[in-house]
Amino acid sequence: TRGFIFVMMKLTSVLFLTVHFIFVVADILVTIPDGTIRGREEYSQRGIKFFSFQQIPFAKPPLGELRFKEPQPVDKWEGVLNATTNTKVCYQTYGDDRTVGLENEDCLYLNVFTPRYPSSTNSLPVMFEIYGGGFMNGAATLDTFGPHYLMENDVIVVSVNYRVAAFGFLSTGDMVIPGNYGLKDQQMGLKWVQKNIKYFGGDPKKVTIFGESAGASSVAYHLLSKGSQGLFRAAIAASGTALSPWAYQRDHKEYAYKLASGIDENFKANSTSEDLLNFLRSVPASKIKDVTRIFPEDLHNDQITEGFFFAPVVEPAHENAFLTEKMYSAIENGRANRVPLMIGMCEEELLIKANDPSFSQYLKLIDEDQSILVNKNMRLTDEKDITNAANAIHSLYTNGRFEDHPGAAIRFFSDSGFSKGIIRHAQLQSKFSDVYFYQFNYHGRLSGNTGPFFEGAGKIRHGEDLTYIWAWDNQTYLNSFPQEDVLTNERIRQLYTDFAKHLNPTPSESELLENIIWPKVKPDDFQYLDFNNTLTIKSNPKADVYSKWLDIYEKMVVKPYDTF
């Protein structure tokens, strides 16, 4: 898993080789109830002007007694706030060149980008972006999530920093450190939008939340949080859901105490939650990061299938709780925010795992101990039941050894960690709200994906669709890439922004989209958009294996489920 995260970071570093910077600095002032903000003019890759406001505080810095606490309302400021640069990111688990020297606990800031001169007389749809990174990494910085492409589609984009890793998701499972602080940061950002976006020309009644990977899982968690009701009217979840096994942590208390003992070996395992909180508040943030970075991990406990060490949890019921009910039952029984949902995945999400240095070792280990194939979410304890489930899962992909059939292993990782949960979420929620499903199958140069590839496995890996939505390294010129890449960029932007504008990704026929009309998912008729060089409507994604996963869960898995 650590290799998986490393590969994702390297992917973001090499995606674009042709980079230019165009900034025209001018005073653009906006006054909100908290104070006056100075932004700046920028230009999209086609020379279209937009306005940028970066690093606007939306909550008090979570320092001292506010570490491991819900975000608090921001204080007003005097004078003019310079919002022309973005220099702070929340503490990461595994940083890269983009975060060197920028990590800070004082990190609760957001950005606003608008294609029109800010005016309360405008009424543009708002797209609220939540970054991914496995709840361990990520930041709302321009060099990672440049809005330049989306600015050409006449929407306002808001991107928000939220606490990650232990700072955002440590929990003792009680009222001392209930957890989910990163999700609560996002929610505070959404409340800020409701209060302030009108001053930038946005319509607070037309907010769409969207994210990829852990950002998509966060989107799904907002669908389940009563505190997020009314803060948005639509949602887009790319390559993640609250049903993803990696997006939920059952053993949160165990990892909280492991963190403390990793910092100080004399910290006692029988200490109270209050003792733990006081201790963790007393140590430097950098120490928490350093210990988290070397957290014990073995290949028998893969975080992609078992849950990241610090991830969302179900909290005890209390006034500020973000989530108090298991995810599967909430979605299944219609206790999710009933807003239109666009959800999907890449063809072979965990093809990226092949770049993990431990990949071949992991395949050998699975062949020696097939119980690793059985997720914690199956809640099996009897050795015979575990063996039967492992055999059933293994036979879905190969009758031989995974070491000899790495493509089959890649398919297992992709389906177990991503596909089956994403498809199931769409299927369950389609009973209660409009759901549009897609599979991203386009392989172009812009993504930077040159393999390795494996027989029997797809070629489109986790995160490739992001490269057609965001301009990385501040400004990417598409004219050096194939026309098919440019077309894919234009198509995916139109689908995203039409969904934000009309609650329907194809409100009418369009030549750009080959005049398709994207149908909704129905519980008994699962149609979806196959996004490739051409756009095609198909039925039943991953049909060959998904129905068999359903059968395994129905016959072998202990109910009720939490993830899937």
From TrEMBL:
Domain of life: Eukaryota
Similarity section: Belongs to the type-B carboxylesterase/lipase family.
EC number: 3.1.1.-
Record InterPro entries: AB_hydrolase_fold, CarbesteraseB, Carboxylesterase_B_AS, Carboxylesterase_B_CS
Organism of provenance: Leptinotarsa decemlineata
Lineage, top ranks: Eukaryota, Metazoa, Ecdysozoa, Arthropoda, Hexapoda
Coiled coil: none
Protein name: Carboxylic ester hydrolase
Record keywords, A-Z: Disulfide bond, Glycoprotein, Hydrolase, Serine esterase
Gene3D superfamilies: alpha/beta hydrolase
